[in-house]
Write a structure and sequence with these properties.
Helix content is about 0%, strand content about 50%. It is mainly beta.
């Protein structure tokens, strides 16, 4: 049987300062965890967001 494609998984971006789930995105599994500077509506400023699975 042939190997299937890896399906995209849903991951969430969590604010490091407030621990709120602010963004959800779909990406291929594997690789390193994302760390992005995104806007946090709770903190009302740009903060570091890290990838987390629910």
């Amino acid at each position: 049987m042939a190997k299937g494609k890896k399906k995209a998984e849903t991951v969430f971006l969590v604010c490091k300062e407030s621990d709120h789930y602010n963004y959800a995105l779909r990406r291929k599994p594997g690789g390193e965890k994302l760390t992005l500077s995104k806007y946090c509506p709770h903190c009302r400023k740009h903060t570091e967001h890290v990838e987390k699975k629910k």
